[in-house]
Amino acid sequence: MSGAFSTPRPVPSRRAPALAGAGVVVLALPVFLVGGFPIGGWALAAVLWAAGEVLGLWLSRLPTGADHLGTSGLVGVAMAFRGIGVMIALLAVTVADKSLGVSAVVVYALAYSLSLLVSLVEYFGGERRV
Fold it and tell me: Which of 18, 36, 103, 118 has the most CB atoms around its CB within 10 Å?
């Protein structure tokens, strides 16, 4: 089992995880409409998801590696603050309006979780580098 985590693999594409997360956000809309949940919570989660994906897309286009230490640092810090920024925004909204914030948190958390799951499946299902 330890070999599964120590074997290098190529970085998988971000397309499938992003589409999986976006699919969760899109499929949550009818649930919100029929279930009577605050549509503002869905909208907030959708905007935060889209903004995070756009930022991730932009960051993935920056050059990284030993030859680009400055941009590598920028990418690392920005990717960390991408998640932190979303959580701060969701926390602030939840404090102001509990039902709105909790509904946004649920949608965002489900989208993020599925995106992470798809990323892990793609990574560990990918070809091993020798």
Answer: 103
